[in-house]
Amino acid sequence: MSVYTEKNLFVLETKNTHYAMAVDCEGHLRHLHWGGKCKVKDYFCSETEERNSNHSGADFAKYEYMTYGGVIYRPSAFAAAFSDGCRQAELQYSDFSVFDEENGSRLEITLKDEEYSLEATLVYRITDGSDIIERSVRIANNSDKDITLNKISSGEFNFPSLKPYISTNANGAWASEFRLTKTPVESGVLTYESRKGNTGHGNCPYFILSQNADENHGGVYFGALAWSGNFRIEISRDFAGVTRAVAGISDMDFSYTLKSGETFTTPSVFCGYTQGFAEMSNQMNRYAVDNILPKEFAKEPLPVLYNSWEATGFDVNCKDQLELAKIAADIGCELFVMDDGWFGQRNDDHAGLGDWFVNKEKFPDGLKPLIDGVKALGMKFGLWFEPEMVNPDSDLFREHPDWAYHYPTRKAQLMRNQLVLNMTRSDVQEYIFNRLDAMLNEYDISYIKWDMNRPFSETGAENLQNPQELWYRHVTAVYDIVDRLKAAHPGLQIESCASGGGRAELGALSHYDMVWTSDNTDPVDRLYIQEGYSMLYPIKCMRAWVTDTNRRERPNDLDFRFIVSMQGSLSLGGNLHEYTKEEIEKSKKYVALYKEIRNTVQFGDFYRLATYENNGFYATQYNDDSQSVVFVCSPATSFFNDRLRTVLFKGLDAHADYCVSFDDCQFTKSGSYLMNVGISLDLTRPFTGKIIRLKRM
Ligand code: DGJ
Question: With contact defined as beta carbons under 8 Å apart, do 389 and 452 qualify?
Fold first, then answer.
């Protein structure tokens, strides 16, 4: 892992790849190569020349970070306007620096627009033992006038093949997050985005581009943006067949006024090139744990959590919660979370948001009796908040009607009876921080579920000189409060939730310890959601509840529900009062088993062995040095001729022998046999699953 800088050539060498750039004779930073390693001396930068009256040389060039304007007509990475009316920034190579870091190196290449004293520093960070490159851009205004930034992407990417790539992303909705799509990029611009203020449930803020790839083979390029607000990923294929991507904060209704002497740093985009999707997911899974997640808990397994939302809804009180807590503790849960309903006049979703004071009718003696009770049962206590929101029917709104985003001339549109607080105001930020901080000071709370249940609308922010900055400033204010709460309360874990998976990506995971991926807890649907999530996001952060919802709507065994949820961070969310004795015993058994395998699941190598889409059944494998665990889930159909399914294992030592155990079977086979011949399973019964454990002999 090194950075080569020779003459005007820059090569980032990662574990298996090269990323090469060079400065051309016009002073532009050009992209040369991303992929397998070559001899550094072989890289060179060709001249660009005008081809005809309609195509300049720029049409045929690959640039690292091209600005809007001039003869660039494709999606550009950057656009700025200057105080004299010029809307064309021109960034020319200026200088570079290489920095040694604890576990890698950082290359910074500075481009300058001398005329307007504008600087863009492209930052590339590489890390030992990985192919992931972290990219970001730092913009500096060294002039004495304001500069308006209209588009500030985190990176522009160029891909080598002239043949169309297949783009993998998601097309989701509430309760339907991470539903993977595959789209050929043949012409035009394919855009994935959110315009909702948060990440949203629809598209993912990443690109994954592949050709003839499957889990094990074929080149895969990917780049995941760490940003929890409006984003835009633009993937284009031009007239000459060149595919490019631009990834960053969305430029919709956005601009940022960079004042004299100020800098603006974009969110990071984590990108890489691997052979096959499994290697991509594994590299990002490991990298996120080592480099992205908040440090305090990054390498600690997450506790088994019980959340009372699906059991009690808004109807919470000390007695009922404690009764649930007793059963949850008996089952083996380690953290008891009381969800919505404990504050203000919160009896349903019409009132109370913003009033983060304990509801005295429901908890006459405050939360202490409940928290003491939970702790006496050996569990930690967690609490739900939705800090960015306010109900018009709340004391907060009655006192500060101007604290929600609004336009005086437009009717505020409610969604779930609530409005979005103007988080760009310092008084709003302080109120939220102080209320949560006060609750954490008063009570022994180890975990917060930070929810966010509606998108933005009427986005007026009179407090800002440039109100179009609100999309950016809202997100950084949220990150800042989360960071401050964690700094003030060591040991506090925070989960990101936004009506399920509306804020589940690497930006959130740079601040929160885990995410809630969906309100949909139907186990079959959940497998699709988990598969989509697993593409680029860390397994340990994926909270997965065993609930009852779908026992009613689509009956399926408790075993199956556990087997699905154990593939992430196991959590429980059912109405434990209604569990039979057998169900309690079964839950105990699975929670105990999960504790035996949780390190492997949360930190091991991860393989999608089979998916419903490709194989008609679903199987995942998790390996570490101590063991290997495989979860197999049957199809929803029961065709006789689909009875037998072969599971081929992955990532084993071909020369070692493994003791394989599941159900009542136990046998020994070599790693090579298990990976090449595999085992045959009868999966005729829908909604059933198996947990197969492999121990190296
Ligand atoms: C939406 C979340 O996704 C649920 O888990 C729950 O916390 C509700 N909000 C509470 O209102």
Answer: yes
CA neighbor of 168 nearest in space, from 131, 219, 220 = 220
Residue 323: CA count within 13 A, CB half-sphere: 11
User: Tokens 């004495």 correspond to what residue?
Assistant: 144
**pLDDT grade for 1, boundaries at 50, 70 and 90:** confident
Average pLDDT over residues 636-659: 93
Q: Pick from 540, 542, 564: which is nearest to 551 by CA? A: 564
CB under 8 A, 24+ apart: contacts of 591-595: 591/304, 591/331, 591/332, 591/333, 592/332, 593/566, 593/691, 594/304, 594/566, 594/570, 595/304, 595/332
The residue to mutate among 340, 389, 572, having the most atoms of ligand 1 within 8 angstroms of its beta carbon, is 340
Contact 422, 404 (CB under 8 A): yes
Atom number of ligand 1 nearest to Cα 339: 7
HEC profile for 621-654?
EEECCCCEEEEEECCCCCCHHHCEEEECCCCCCC
For every residue of 306-335, DSSP letters joined together read EE-HHHHTT---HHHHHHHHHHHHHHT-SE
**pLDDT range class, residue 552, cuts 50, 70, 90:** low
Parallel, antiparallel or unpaired: strands 389-390 and 419-420? antiparallel
Cα–Cα dist 274/253, whole Å: 35
Q: Who contacts 560 (Cβ-Cβ below 8 Å, separation ≥6)?
A: 523, 633, 687, 688, 689
Convert the pLDDT of each residue in 309-341 to its tens digit: 999 999 999 999 999 999 999 999 999 999 999
Q: How does pLDDT run across 364-405, given as a tens digit for each residue? A: 999 999 999 999 999 999 999 999 999 999 999 999 999 999
**Chain CA centroid to CA 538, Å:** 8
Please state the rounded mean pLDDT for residues 274-281: 98
Q: Is the CB of 384 under 6 A from ligand 1?
A: yes
3-state helix, strand, coil in the chain (%, to 5): 25, 35, 40
Query: In angstroms, rounded to a whole number, what is the distance separating the alpha carbons of residues 525 and 533?
Result: 13
Q: Pick the residue whose CA is nearest to atom 2 on ligand 1.
A: 499
> In the numeric block, which tokens belong to residue 139?
């913009």
pTM of the complete model = 0.98
* Ligand 1 mutation target, pool 177, 199, 343, 384, most atoms within 8 A of CB: 384
Beta-strand relationship, 447-450 and 380-385? parallel
Q: Which residues are catalytically annotated?
A: 451, 519
Q: How far apart are CA 216 and CA 275, in angstroms?
A: 7
Residue 350: what residue type? H
Tell me how far the alpha carbon of residue 448 lies from the centroid of ligand 1, in angstroms: 13
**221 touches 210 (CB < 8 A):** yes
Residue 304's alpha-carbon distances to 32, 278, 384, 603, 687, in angstroms, are: 48, 27, 17, 15, 23
Q: Are 266 and 151 in contact (CB under 8 A)?
A: no
- The verdict on the CB of residue 309 being under 6 Å from ligand 1 is yes
Which helix (H) or strand (E) segment holds residue 101: the answer is strand 92-101
Tokens 């001729």 identify what position? Answer: 641
Q: With a 6 A CB cut-off, is 383 part of the ligand 1 pocket?
A: no
In the DSSP assignment, the letter for residue 96 is E
User: Can you give the pLDDT at residue 169?
Assistant: 98
- Positive or negative CA dihedral for 389, 392, 394, 399? positive
Closest CA to 497 of 250, 291, 233, 198: 198
- Ligand 1 center from residue 40 Cα (angstroms): 53
- Strands 118-127 and 2-6 come out as unpaired
Q: 360 burial class (0-12, 13-18, 19+ CB within 10 angstroms)?
A: exposed
pLDDT in tens, 625-634: 999 999 999 9
Burial category of 654 from C-beta neighbours within 10 Å (exposed 0-12, middle 13-18, buried 19 and up): exposed
